[in-house]
Amino acid sequence: MKALCLLLLVGVTLAADVVDPKTCTTFPCLIFNDEFDFLDHDVWEHEITMSGGGNWEFQVYVNNRSVSYTRDSTLFIRPELTDRWKGDGFVSSGELNLWGMNGRGDVCTGNSYYGCDRFGNAVNLVNPVMSARLRSLPGFAVKYGRIEVRAKMPRGDWLWPAIWMLPRYWPYGGWPASGEIDILESRGNDDYGDLGNQYGGTTMHWGPHWPLNFYDKTTAQYTASDGSFANSFHVWRIDWTSTKIDYYVDDVLVLSVDPGTSFWDFSGLGSEYDNPWVAGEKLAPFDQKFYFLFNVAVGGTNGFFPDEVPATHPNPGPIHHHKPSSTSGMGVIVGCPAGNRVRVASVKALLYRLITSRCGR
Ligand SMILES: *[C@@H]1O[C@H](CO)[C@@H](O)[C@H](O)[C@H]1NC(C)=O
């Protein structure tokens, strides 16, 4: 009996620790802690799609332990060429049908933008890179508190790593009305002006409906203290209260967002639009639960990877020739093969006080 209890205890401490906030008696209270001793599938699920959203990204998100895995108490996402999975020439002649890929029914998690089934031909290639996107949708979402992610970014052209959060329930409607919190986005390129892996960005997306999105009021770009976010681990932290959100990289404040009276007033939109957040708290749409996402996207045609590095940037280079496109999958993940993966060492969420239901409304 004793041995059994011990075994159970060991199991619990190695998995992601998820605590119901209602059981917190002292604060700060650690309500979520994952050190990735193994991948806890009660918390994390793989998205399966080649949708790429409106960005027309070039990756296929798959559930494959060659691509995403835990090792040395670290979660790795390591992109790989689709041809290594399906064979040479597949991307220009094969059909990639992701329905049922998990072997447990019809699983494809994103059907928009032809995300579940595509045919390759000489003009339109099937997405040339396999990668992974994990989300804590099944197991954890949080509203207000301190969030810390310790991670190292990948090195490699056109890799687009992201550590971010989306709304658990989309209570104010579709994107971007319910908000998006991009804790970190960067680019894997070594030599890409001031857009390479030496730099990172933090952004909140919000607006009453697409294409109204006021992210330019809530975004910051910054430089890695050690020269590149692909060189070593860094800690991204959010201090998120009911009145503001502060973002830190290695304990340096990089962005502080206080919308004033409300995000609606902050937007400056007039009364010709309906305010979806009118019944929310001050920080609406960021007054509700968000879950984590970690991914390595690749390329895209939305301008995140401009074809020409602007001339005002240092080191403009002719690397746009290698940019993967719908007609060319080449040039992806060149460079150091060991460095092309994102590594997430830990994720934590701390509550400072219990959030009780609102009174007086
Ligand atoms: C996973 O990807 C590798 C290529 O890296 C491939 O050889 C393998 O067949 C894939 N496994 C599954 C289950 O799709």
From TrEMBL:
Residues 1-15 form the signal peptide. Keywords: Signal. It comes from the Eukaryota. GO terms for molecular function: hydrolase activity, hydrolyzing O-glycosyl compounds. GO terms for biological process: carbohydrate metabolic process. SUPFAM superfamilies: Concanavalin A-like lectins/glucanases. Residues 12-303 form the GH16 domain. PANTHER family: GLYCOSIDE HYDROLASE FAMILY 16 PROTEIN, GLYCOSYL HYDROLASE-RELATED. Belongs to the glycosyl hydrolase 16 family. This is GH16 domain-containing protein. It comes from Petrolisthes cinctipes.
